Amino acid sequence: AVKLAERITPEYANGLTFTNNNVAIGYYSNGEYPNALKYFNEALKYAEKKGDKRKIASVTGKIANVYKARSNVAAALQYYFSALKVAEEINDKTLIVQNLSNIASIYGDQNSQDKALEYDIRALKISEEIKDEYGSAVLYTNMGIIYNSKKNIPKALECYRSALVMADKLGNKNIQTSCFGNIGSLYADDKQHDSALVYFLASLKGAQEIKDKNFTAIAYGNVASIFQFQKKFEMADRYYKLALNIDSAIGFVGHSLVMHQMLSELYLKKGDFKQALQQYKNYTTQKDSVFNSEKNSELTRYEMNYEFEKKEASTKAEQDKKDAVTMAEGRKQKAILALVCCVLFLVFIFAVFIFRSLRITKKQKLVIEMKSKETEEQKDIIEEKNKDILDSIRYAKRIQVALLPTEKYIERNLEELQKN
Questions:
Q1: Rounded to an integer, what distance in angstroms lies between the CA atom of residue 276 and that of residue 288?
Q2: What contacts 206, CB < 8 A, 6 or more positions away?
Q3: Considering the entire predicted model, what is its pTM?
């Protein structure tokens, strides 16, 4: 499988992710958690190779589910936060709701009820926003559990009833089974054992119908607890052991811890102190393995990492927003500059046109002036020539006049001739 993964191309990665994911789900449903974990990890590897963030978030959340089922709280929380981070990056609200809800359940299991309620309320708000009735039903169920642990019974019943209404509408037996068990717990806490047994048996029937080993183990334990209160010790012993068998098979350590504690109390009431001591030892050993200071510090560290990364992402988003505004302003300024350039260009073109027109007009005026000057010069030349001609005529006339005798001269000569 490793060699194949090294040669696989992104085009085939999607199909391998789907195949391994389905195989893993099959193993998970059967309580075969090691095999489920193996195939979920294979699916995650191919999803990362393809770069499909939605599948990465989805498969990472399922790996967290396996660790949660095996009571590896720190690993489960780490994977849930990783899945939540990727889901928020792609703004997949369905996956965001799922992971917020799962993180809340982890805190609830660790008795951090206020923290659990905080995450559930965040998830419910988004779930109602996207009109996810299934997600809302699950969240109402989880919130009912938290309110129950806080002894707010009216609020818990309100949540369970809201969840049942949605589950009935959807025909979802998983949520119905969970709600039956939770309502049974409310009646058990109120010492209404007969009513509690009715709901616990309904929950057991539902768990067996949907073949959910976790629900079945929990239902066996709940039924056993009622038999113990009713002092039906043999029946209680039988149902506790049925629950423990399933817990051991699927690695449901957190639940088996409670079963050992209940069996220790049962044997004390029966007077079987040897068995009571053994069951108490089993309880304390498992308790130390599940709840230790190292795991609690890991829980804090993972949450702090997530909150830091979330704050960093928020800061980056704010910076991106500022950058977007700056870019928008830059684009606006560029647009204004382009408009100004266009106007200046048009002014330039108009100026060139005016300049050219003026130049042509000036040239035409110059030509006209030159022609006018030429005409004047020609006129002067003609006048000068005319003057020369007239002068010549006058000169010739004077000569002519000078050559011809005057009348007085002729008369005198005639008179002298007559005298002679």
A1: 18
A2: 173, 174, 176, 177, 180, 215
A3: 0.51
